[in-house]
Amino acid sequence: MTRWSWLAAVALMAGGPGVSAGQDVTAIRAGRLVDVEQGQIRRDQIILVRGDRIESIQPASSRIPSGARVVDLSKYTVLPGLIDCHTHLIGEAELSDVLLPLERSAAQEAFSGVRNARATLLAGFTTVRDIGTYRAFVDAALRDAIEDGTVIGPRMAVAGAYVTVTKGAGEVVGAANDVTIPAEFRFGVANSVDEVRERVRALLNGGADFIKILATGAVLTKGTKPGVSEYTEAELRAAVEQAAEYGAFVAAHAHGAEGIKRAVRAGVRSIEHGSLIDDEGIALMKERGTWLVADIYNGDYIAAVGREQKWPVEFLRKNEETTEAQRAGFRKAVAAGVRIAYGTDSGVYPHGLNARQLPYMVRYGMTPMQAIQAATLSAAQLMGWENRVGSLAAGKYADIIAVQGDAMADLSRFEKVSFVMKGGVVHKAP
Ligand SMILES: [Zn+2]
Fold it and tell me: 370 C-alpha vs ligand 1 centroid, how far in Å?
């Protein structure tokens, strides 16, 4: 027992005030500290962590409290935990079988979530915005199990289910037309302004943190067309207004140029994918401050693995029609100054590979610092969580990761994160 914790124990036994008993102190020596707020690298710093929070950040020459545990990351680049704003932690990424969700029990889906959450955290992603599950509210159960310590995983904001039109981009499709899909897979189905309002209420009352609405067809949903709008602007606006009653926001899946513009005009907080965005849509997003969450890595994964695993030909074709268009649109959006947050559609590809998109964002127009900011501070701002996570600052959660050497020189190094701390607890160490 260290002297400090011995004193704390004594204070605890005596019931004495003053000492924040039971709160471990950790001093992290950071060789390179990425200050995402200033967009700078600071050399040789000490991060003091008390309990689950960052207490201070000081030059390496400053005094370390006696009794503090010291973690030496002086040969590492140290950053705030990364944030993925577009994950699907529930379920399996086997898209060769589109009816797979119907072959799995809720318990099996939850256990997949446990495995996926762990892989995501150990990859350095300490927070996710989990953007939909076919079986309603399994995501909320996973979020709660992580929060109460039953399961190891990232902090989660969850959508609860998909708000989608009948047989639209958020439905389990592929069954025969006269087969009825069970209600728990259709919780968010809504086909009018009134139904959208009713489903948004049901989702937010049921434990969702935000709303995911499918504004256009999808690449990986049979029969739907990415370029086709599935909701009217009035229906999208109903979702935004109803969510706002709860202080919640709407994320809109939108590939087609028209669907993107409808969603932006309706007031959604983020456009997911944005694959076929046009110049007018980019200008509108810039003007309205709408966030773009574009999954510009996974097109390559789908093209390679989808072919290998014999995913439906329709998926591969739609993937080809959107991948390069999305990257071109992303490049234009970056140049135009559209707000961009990191999101990968993890679940389409295996969980834990979330960092693979970072070098793509540099290839398509961002500086390495901008890409890291998108995956930290900007992502936190999109979620409305910037007071809790997203940068290394006193008072925020001690969600801290480290990558060996000068990681900012080559963002592919983020595929090998050496150190992961979440809320002051070390989950991975060199
Ligand atoms: Zn998705």
Answer: 23
d(CA 56, CA 164): 45
Q: Confidence band (pLDDT; 50, 70, 90) for 397? A: very high
The sheet carrying 250-254 orders its strands as 211-214, 250-254, 270-273, 291-293
| Distance between Cα 130 and ligand 1 center (Å) | 9
pLDDT bracket for residue 22 (50, 70, 90):
low
Q: How far is the CA of 214 from the centre of ligand 1 (A)?
A: 10
3-class SS letters over the chain = CCHHHHHHHHHHHHCCCCCCCCCCEEEEEEEEEEECCCCEEEEEEEEEEECCEEEEEEECCCCCCCCCEEEEEEEEEEEECEEEEEECCCCCCCCCCCCHHHHCCHHHHHHHHHHHHHHHHHCCEEEEEECCCCCCCHHHHHHHHHHCCCCCCCEEEECCCCEECCCCCCCCCCCCCCCCCCHHHCCCECCCHHHHHHHHHHHHHCCCCCEEEECECCCCCCCCCCCCECCCHHHHHHHHHHHHHCCCCEEEEECCHHHHHHHHHHCCCEEEECCCCCHHHHHHHHHHCCEEECCCCHHHHHHHHHHHCCCCHHHHHHHHHHHHHHHHHHHHHHHHCCCECCCCCECCECCCCHHHHHHHHHHCCCCHHHHHHHCCHHHHHHHCCCCCCCCCCCCCECCEEEEECCHHHCHHHHHCCCEEEECCEEEECC
* CA distance to 17, 54, 295, 303, 342, per residue, from 355 (Å): 44, 24, 12, 19, 10
Reported as a single tens digit per residue, the pLDDT across 90-141 is 988 777 788 999 999 999 999 999 999 999 999 999 999 999 999 999 999 9
Taking the centre of ligand 1 as the mean of its atom positions, its distance from the CA of residue 198, in whole angstroms, is 23
CA 86 to centroid of ligand 1, rounded, Å? 6
State the distance from the centre of ligand 1 to the C-alpha of 115, rounded, in angstroms.
18
Query: What is the model's pLDDT at position 93?
Result: 78
What distance in Å separates the CA atoms of residue 155 and residue 220, rounded to the nearest whole number? 27
Tell how far the Cα of 131 is from the centroid of ligand 1, in angstroms.
6
Backbone angles phi, psi at 303, to 5 degrees: -60, -40
